[in-house]
Amino acid sequence: MAVAVTPATGTAPVTLLRAGAAVLGTYGYVLGLLLARHDLNPEPVATIRVWLNRPLGLGEDFGPFAVMLLLAAAGLQPRRLVQVGLSVLATVCVCLFVYEDPARLLAFLPLLLAGYVTWAVVDERLPAWAGVPLGVGCLAVVVAADRAFPGLRPWWYPVAAVFAVLLSLVVVRPGPTAGAVAGHPVTRALAVAAEVPFVAGALLVLVGA
Amino acid sequence: MRYLHGLNLLRIVASVAVFYDHLRGWFASGGQRWTFDENLSAAVLSPVRLDALVGAFGICTFFLVSGVVITFAAQREGPGRFVARRAVRILPAMWVVLLIVWVLASCHVQVGVAGPVDAGDLFANLTLANFFVPNQTGLDLVTWTLGVQIAYYLFVAATIPLLRRWPWLPPALAVTLVSVLLSVVSDESTTATHMLRVIITFLPILFIGQLVALVRLGRLHPLAGLAYGVLQWLLLVRGDLTSDLTPAVPGYARMVVCIALLVIVCCRLSGGLATARWTRGLADRTYAVFLVHVPVLYVTPHLLSTTTGTTPALLIATVATAVLADLLYRFVEVPCVRWYRKWENRGRNSAERAPDDLAGRVEAAR
Question: Cα separation of B325 and B328, whole Å?
């Protein structure tokens, strides 16, 4: 679905988050998944794992973090129901087919609400004093899922959720440079196709690639 | 300069985190359980992997905020004035606390000081030499962070002329300097080399704060700031990967990214809690809290807990910290800053002077 994404329309935050999700999703759920399935660990990927993934606490080659960015971006544009639906569908595909674990939905979906709360506060539909506890409540649900399902604990999803929320808060008021990056054709193309790598990852698992 | 109100909130949170971490230390030192902490750990801190990093979170937040605020100050001060103002801001309060702790320790009062003390220990602590010379007794161990701060101040002072003319150059020099020093200071077998390594390892956090400020001031392109920030962060990771001792606990790199994002968000806050008077008042006293809380925590509970029980002892320790920090702020920090500002303004006519009250408050907020 083509989305007119320009800084002027105020969609730069969504564009940036979705483009980030597309890049990290491709790395995590396409490249990372293929390497894992073929038991490969090439030097560049190993280096990224040592220097970025482990220090940041973002495991599984940034995949879950990418899902959370995608959902946070979806929450920031509540009026685009089709876009929100596609993002949720991509998340469901990842949880059901890549992980074969629906419990992960409980760790991922609160980010949709966190994005929505952020949008509501920025759009002055919700006062900040109400938005902050609601946002914290979204993170609390991720924490609760982490505690309720011991299988999730090794993946540090609450850490990824904190990063995704903070990043959303940073990009939600973009400056001129961020606006220019969001307006770049490559960024826009990535943002438009943000769900593709997640669905592709699920397909790769389904076809046994 | 537009005052960054949101950073006051972060300074308060940082202060609470450091205080809370030392409360934990007090419980651990007595071999006691702290049910509140166990619940908080299980419900919040462990899931977000902050359990072992509560104190580190506070210290890193102070470093990052300091990196931002000091860069703002460096835009309008010459190197000499910059160093003098920072010295007046941090040294008198530290010296007063160290002197009082030394007197108490000399009288064998438990103030968290290990072993007997003599005049040499006092001199070493007043000059922070205790962190470089072996077998010196530390009087207030949180002062190690001032070693990192002072190293940063000296770098900023030395590069102020460059910062004004070519704002991109000091960050490039900072990256080079930290990288070279990490390579050179790899052995931590002596007290001095260990402290040097500590300073070098933590400097990138302050430099990330500097980058946030330069971008916010419009002196550095955001993409350049991002690139330098990533390099500084990778140096922090390198410091961690190449040392078994420093940082003492893993996870700093992850936490620094979170704090940097928080700082960027908080820099934009301009209303509500961030601008409340009590927020400013509390934030102004965070340095005093930082200095006094360890000696107070270790003297009051030890005096009281056997007779009053743990909870009242902790409440009394908390109130005592607040009261002493307020006294230190009112009767040492603010008067020293004001006295120095008056001395600095001597011989100038009123039009050339900064308003004394404003200058004092801005300075004291640093």
Answer: 5
pLDDT digits (tens, 9 = 90+) for A131-174: 999 999 999 999 999 999 999 999 999 999 999 999 999 999 89
pTM across the whole model: 0.93
- Minimum-distance CB partner of B47 among A143, A175, A177: A143
Contact flag A143-B272 (C-beta cutoff 8 Å):
no
Q: Which residue from A93, A101, A91, A100 is spatially nearest to A69, judged by alpha carbons? A: A91
Query: At A10, is the pLDDT very low, low, confident or very high (cuts 50, 70, 90)?
Result: low
What's the structural domain count of chain B? 1
Amino acid B94 reads: M
User: What part of B 4-43 touches A (C-beta under 8 Å)?
Assistant: 42-43
**B276 inside 8 A of chain A by CB:** no
- Tokens 């280096």 appear where? A47
Q: In B, which residues are within 8 Å of A146 by CB distance?
A: 47
Range of the domain at B285: 6-345
Is 90 exceeded by the pLDDT of residue B222?
yes
The token duo for B61 is 């937040």
Tell me the mean pLDDT in the region B218-246.
96
Residue B117: C-alpha distances to residues B75, B103, B139, B258 (Å): 42, 9, 9, 40
Locate all alpha helices (DSSP H) within chain B, ordered by sequence. 6-29, 35-40, 54-74, 79-106, 119-126, 144-165, 169-184, 191-216, 222-241, 252-267, 277-284, 286-308, 310-328, 334-344, 356-364
Does B339 have pLDDT greater than 80?
A: yes
- Model confidence at B317, pLDDT cuts 50, 70, 90, reads confident
Mean pLDDT for the stretch of residues B70-93? 95
Identify all chain B residues contacting A156, using CB atoms and an 8 Å cutoff. 49
CB contact under 8 A, B49 and A57: yes
Secondary structure (3-state) at B277: helix
Can you give B32-89 as a three-state secondary structure string?
CCCHHHHHHHHHHHCCCCCCCCHHHHHHHHHHHHHHHHHHHHHCCCCHHHHHHHHHHH
Whether chain A has a CB inside 8 Å of the CB on B265: the answer is yes
Query: How far is residue B80's CA from residue A131's CA, in Å, rounded to a whole number?
Result: 45
- CB-nearest partner of B261 from A158, A166, A173: A166
Neighbours of B203 (CB within 10 A): 26
Contact (CB<8Å) A147/B222: no
- B247 within domain boundaries: yes
B276 CB-contact burial (10 Å; exposed 0-12 / middle 13-18 / buried 19+): middle
**Amino acid residing at B68:** V
Q: What pLDDT score does B349 carry?
A: 67
**A152 neighbors A57 (Cβ within 8 angstroms):** no
At B109, the pLDDT band (50, 70, 90 cuts) reads: confident
In a domain, B362, yes or no: no
- Mutate which: A169, A173, A184, vs B, most B CBs within 10 A: A169
Q: Identify which of B48, B223, B240 has the shortest CB distance to residue A177.
A: B223
